Amino acid sequence: MYLDNAATSFPKPESVYEAVLRALREVGASPGRGGYRSALEAGRIVFQARECIAGFFSIADSSRIIFTHNATAALNLALYGILTTGDHVVTTTMEHNSLLRPLYALEGKGVEVTIVPAGSDGIVLVDDIRRAVRANTRMIAVSHISNVCGAIQPIRELSEVCSVAGALFLVDASQSAGHIPLDVDHHHIDLLAVPGHKGLLGPSGTGLLYVAPHVELIPVMQGGTGTNSTAVKQPLTMPDGFEAGTLNLSGIAGMQAGVEFIKGVGLAALHRLQCDLLDQAEQALRGISGVEILGPEKSTDRCAVLSFTVSDVDVAQLAAELDHSFDIAVRAGLHCAPLAHRTLGTLPEGSLRVSPGWFNTREDIAFFSDAVVQCIHKIRSQKGTHEKLHP
């Protein structure tokens, strides 16, 4: 049973597999790399995917969408393509390493970084972000939803801080895209980094960066674009100048199919199902001795994931036991977010994270909950035996 959709959604809708195979088997050519029919068809697939995804995020101009191979690449492009020596960035302790590590590297190039601590529930206070702003603050960068505890950050209010400060607002939507509504105009988002393989239900190796019309971005990779071939420097045209090299045609086709599936099902229905499953899991887990649920107390302030610890049980051992004895896939550890775990008080062991998807059922969660009880009992029994043998 697969319950690690926060890492990569699985299984995918059948339409995603079909779109990938069609692009591979029937099209095959590279978009923008020829005038023959299959190359033109490849270009049409890419254009339609941009249009579809633009509509999903209420983006008026689809050319402002740059396709990347994941959210990490999108975040790196947003950071390295904008920040220069003397700029100041405000972020939080709840960020994934895909945002924090580029910022640490940029500190070595003269970029100033302030990391604002979130509360013990994983939510950052807007006033704390506001107080961290300086005259040279160029950007405020936050993850919309924590990949560790599911805490939902108040991005609408944070965007207002950006507006007052004259700073750009970068949102990492790795855990929110495909789960809750995202409107770049309503939320005043200047830069939006999105993976294709998580909530959008697309294949791995896909993602995108939305860049608002007023944002000036510098390419961080140079190469062939299929346009402006006589220019010795990388063109700055959107999106061509930022998509050097051959695009992942089959992946992009699959990502569009994933978004179309979500539109057909309805984002509200998908979100409601996931919340119901997470609530069911939480109720069962709270009845187990020693279990502590991480993140906000109110489930409405959480989304996408449920993380927990067990006072006398190593979460890595618990995850391994769930896998080996019940074939249940969950993730344990630090989830590439050590500062978040320090904030939540779960460093260095981390937590166990469960993240159901559209294809999971209430029966799955009941099976998972029962398996957790059995695994904890087994581990505790083994631990008790060991302690008796080795006092």
Please report which band the strand proportion falls in: under 5%, 5-15%, 15-25%, 25-35%, 35-45% or over 45%: 5-15%
CATH class of the largest domain: Alpha Beta
Low-confidence stretches: 386-391
- Give the helix level as a range of percent: 40-55%
CATH level-4 homologous superfamily of the largest domain = Type I PLP-dependent aspartate aminotransferase-like (Major domain)
Write the layout of secondary structure elements.
Blueprint: H1 14-27, H2 37-56, E1 65-68, H3 71-80, E2 88-92, H4 97-107, E3 112-116, H5 126-132, E4 137-143, H6 155-165, E5 168-172, E6 191-195, E7 207-211, H7 249-265, H8 267-286, E8 291-293, E9 306-310, H9 315-326, E10 331-333, H10 338-344, E11 351-354, H11 362-389
Parallel strand pairs: 2-3, 2-4, 4-5, 5-6
Antiparallel strand pairs: 1-7, 6-7, 8-9, 9-11, 10-11
Short description:
This protein has two domains: 252 residues, 3-Layer(aba) Sandwich (Aspartate Aminotransferase, domain 2); 123 residues, Alpha-Beta Complex (Aspartate Aminotransferase, domain 1). It is built from eleven helices and eleven strands.
